[in-house]
Amino acid sequence: MFNPFVVILIVSFYMALLFGIAQWVEKRNQLTGKSFNNPWVYALSIAVYHTSWTFYGSVGFAANSGLLFLGVYIGGFISILFWHFTLRKMVQAKETFRITSVADFISTRYNRSQKIAGIVTLIALLGIVPYISLQLKAVITSFNLITHNSAEMMDWGLSGLFVTIFMIVFTILFGVRRLDPTERHQGMIFALVAECLVKLVAFMAVGIFVTYVLFDGIGDINQRIEEAGLDHITSFAATDNAGSMWVTLIVLSFVAVQLLPRQFHVTVVENTDQRHIRTAMWLFPLYMVLINLFVVPIAAAGLLTGIDKSSADFFVLILPQLAGNNLLSLLAFIGGFSAATGMIIITTMTLATMASNHLVLPAIERTGACTFLRGYLLQVRWVLVALILLGSYWFTLEFADSYILASIGLISFVAILQFGPATFGGLFWKKANSAGAFLGLACGFAVWCYTLVLPTLVKHGWFANDILTFGPGGISYLRPEALFGLDGMHPVTHAVFWSMLFNIGAYVLISLLYQPHKEERNFTTEFMCAMLAKAQGRKARPTGLEAYIVLNAKLEEAKSLLANYLNEDKANEQVQNIADDLQVLDKTHITIIELVEFHRMVEHVLAGSIGSASAHSAMESRIRYSEKESADLQAVFSHIVTELQGSGVTSGLDEPQPTEPGGFGLIEDLQTQIDKLQNKIKQQELELERMDQKLEHRYEEIFKYRIEAQKTHQENEALRKELNERIGQI
Fold first, then answer.
1. Could you tell me the maximum CA-CA distance found in the chain, to the nearest angstrom?
2. pTM of the complete model
3. Which of 35-44, 213-222, 702-711 has the lowest mean pLDDT?
4. Which among 153, 198, 152 is positioned nearest to 55, based on CA atoms?
5. Measuring CA to CA, which residue among 336, 434, 497 is closest to residue 110?
6. Cα dihedral 472, 477, 479, 485 in deg (nearest 10)
7. What residues pair up with 550 in beta bridges, in sequence order?
8. Whose CA, among 71, 176, 183, 283, lies 20 to 30 Å from 296?
């Protein structure tokens, strides 16, 4: 056994080393002005998918349920096969709209809906915070296992609080030092890659030691499994309802590998080159195979050694300890610690970003007394990091001895599954709209809470057991684990079936029935087009208009807006960068189109800090146009509309109507005219088609008339000839 203070010192040194790597990478980037652009780094960072649930839990899963644990990874394999169609689209949308999180992505797709962003964030918080608790428990338990004779001697109060504070500090240092989460965290990513390599090496080292040192290889282990009657370890159907559970695990992992908040961040937000996806499509699956290579041998070795099955989750630690190899046991602890901390840091950072952008900031904007907090969003995120991890620590304390933590991984996966219909439907189905997405998410979330969360709380003793036995109010058809009489299924499979039925049903039905307003339809078209091809950088365009708008006044207005959310130096820097990109720094006055482009880029920057939906709202409420600027913008739009209309199709179209001076939504006028023009063209095409049909009908009538006339003429000629013959005879 190790002295606790020695382990703490080693862990502190290890984390300090990782922090040093992160700092070196960021300093190197600042000095050279170039960032690392390595596809291997990107691909390996995705291995944050493998948490302590993989490092420890897969062995426990195999010891109890055989090869069923592979379902968690087979779904991931299948999902990776579709990355060329799904992940590429997400990355392209991120580059165009500066997406900051999975909540921001889904809300942006549906017209930057703040309601959708809010409900996605709420689902993520309730679904993932318990999953963080699982990581904390793994760290605390493993710490006590290598510093005491058994996990029963753990001091949850001291060890747990120390680990939680440790995680708060390092999460802030690694991931929440800057406000803009769309700035690449290359230092953090390199540290994450180092952790991913450490956990892979640690797990494989234990696997090789167990397989080829404690035993004589795979063949020896297989023979002993047969002799000991442990065939269930290598069985595909070691449990009841195995078939339905295989399908359930595959579906859950298919979605989780892309839409878990931490996975979305490393695969989408941190991606800077879409070509890196090709490397990730073979390197990440290879990593997945390697880290699962010795799961079955370790699980079998633990049971063959006589270790109680209840400790199967920690066979990776216990087996080296029993063999007297303390150094390997310490390496296994560091590997498990890396698996847990990588997940905790990335997940907590992304949840804090989502909560601040889509829950806290909207509340601040609606509460006049709290508007001063807009300038302290970074500090707000620090507080959120602390609250999320302290909440996870409380959950660990409350459910430390409960079976709930053992199954919390699957419960969290079912929560994230609710994002699937709105996300994948939004990628490919243009008719999907915000009403369908919101109701689908709400229905799926409600069913998840009722069929999966409520039963776990009942079994923990928070509610009466009669709810599960007889249903609420004695209504048997409403039993949470046998909803509408569907009995005999595994609780997770049952929850997946009903939540997806309600989620997809509401999403599709409402999307078909509800007709969104014009603005949402236009934005949907823009979003779908943005995913088709790599966007080209936009630069200032010649306008032919008079440059009369004072640039400095607009710069100060933008700085004032950004300073509400960024620190003053950062706001000034961003405004200067935008002006430089537009090539207007050497100008004193700019044109109206340059002003519109300037405001678009300001919104783009702001979206990186507070999310697309909040940024759009802030721009609409705080950016103003003068009467002359509004009039000129209307004139430009009128000119464009006229050019688009062309001759012969202008009748029935309205001239652009003046909007309220100072309004930000002037650009919508152009789309309005384009929509009217398209409708007019369609009407005229239909009219031309009707005229063609009418003309063809007239041609047919004329043809028939000519045939009849010719026939009549021939008959007249025959009668005339016959009459002449008779007259001649007379």
1. 147
2. 0.76
3. 702-711
4. 198
5. 434
6. 170
7. 589
8. 283
